[in-house]
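Build the 3D complex.
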Amino acid sequence: MRLIRLRPYWKTAAMEAAGAIGDDPLFLLQYLFRLLRVLVLLSIWQVIFAGRGAVAGMSAASVLTYTLIEEVFADPLTTRTELWVSLRDGSLAVSFLQPMGLVGQFTSKMIGRWFFGSVTFSLPLLMLSPLLGVSPMPASAAALALFVISLVLAITVGVALEFIFGGLMVYFEYSTYAIENLRSAVSVLLSGALIPLQLMPWGMGEVLRWLPFASVASAPLTIYTGTGDPLFLLVMQALWAVILWPVAGWLWRLNRERLVSFGG
Amino acid sequence: MWRLYARMDFLMLTRSMRLFLTWYLSDTLLNVAAVAAAFLLAERFDGIGPWSKYQVLFLLGYSTLVRGVLETFFSYNVLYISRRIGRGQLDHILIQPQPIWMTLLTEGFLPLSLSGVLMLGLGLTAWAGLNLGLSLSPAWLALFALNLAASCAVVVAFSYLWGSLAFWAPRAAEEISTPLVYMVYSLKAFPLDGLPLPMLGGLLSIVPIGFVAWFPCRALLGLDDSPLGGFITPLAALALGALAIWAFSKGLKQYGRTGSQRYHPLGHRS
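Done.
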């Protein structure tokens, strides 16, 4: 019975994964560009750490693994749905006509897109990593197990943030673009996706690790590389998930009627 | 035409001061975030490779200026040309009573909406310049302006070169300019010294990210011993520009034969 209820979500994810293929293999070029970006980032870290020992508890090897795994799991660690695009072009109206919940629909589509990216980019990158001089291995078997739990919590927090920002987009009506910019800026800067929080100057990382954005990227990556306290990180992630989901639900209920102002 | 589009930009913004402020501030914040990574690293490690902290800051300022100029002159997907072509919006340009190049050079002009990025770039460059004790002669300023224009031309040419693929594969290549320009934006602010030579060669030819900020800044800051260093980026822009014009012209001929079977209004200036 439960499987039957899950079928619409699974089919939505499958359709999204298949849709990514399009009508021409030319779309694969974007993965080549992504790969090049990873190569350059890894090289820059090697230049920065040349002749240095561990900095703030992170060795060159752990920073490289952190960067590699961040790129391999880039989609789950950024957790972006198509919600803002739907709000901008008005296609959200169609989503309300589907016999599925809004969160489930957008999450299914998001996971469907990840599937394709994982086959065409993440797996090849993992396999290439020894050639790049980067170890893809986690700090320990326990770190890998905790990473999986942390990744699920990261996605939970990330989707909640998506719907909170989505609620703000509805509230501020014509500022969809501005709120999206804000969301992107905050995600890049505060999540620890690009720079490990431990390596930020002026003790910024000490503050940022308490914020929900750190739960989306920094926490699972820190656990994977064994450079942070897993218990603290998992508790923070669970705490933010518990706090943010009611806020997201409340914002949506509050703003649902305002959606009439969006026409695409 | 620029004056006309500047006026339209002004009218659009003044419809709502709240809208103007939120767009302006969010764009500026996004651009701060875009360069913050390199700045934070430079601060934490007192520079990146052979580049000192303030040299990195100069690089950040220059690269932000490049982005500012591009966004000011090539908005509304004029820079992301594959979107225009792939979505069947090229007809909007073709029916204008002026040459295509003139429309492309003027239609995306947003001098007010995106001036925050330019201001940020100018501020960062000036801050770095003061701390580096740069002596600003007219010749240096001319070289700076020449390289800035050349760096912008490199990005536009690169986007048009690849974006022209959308003439042949409108659906599959519709978004090809997007990851390409984003990749340029995300890597433009890092010094590339010390990278393996084959990679560096690739970043100065096949994917010319090196010319967006790193190479011209090396010349402007005197980190390049070659007397012609300041003219390499303009020469690269000319070569890449010629290649992009060739590809775009070929694509236009193809478009003349087949037209577009798709149409999507998203992203077009209306």
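The CA atoms of residues 153 and 238 of chain A lie 7 Å apart.
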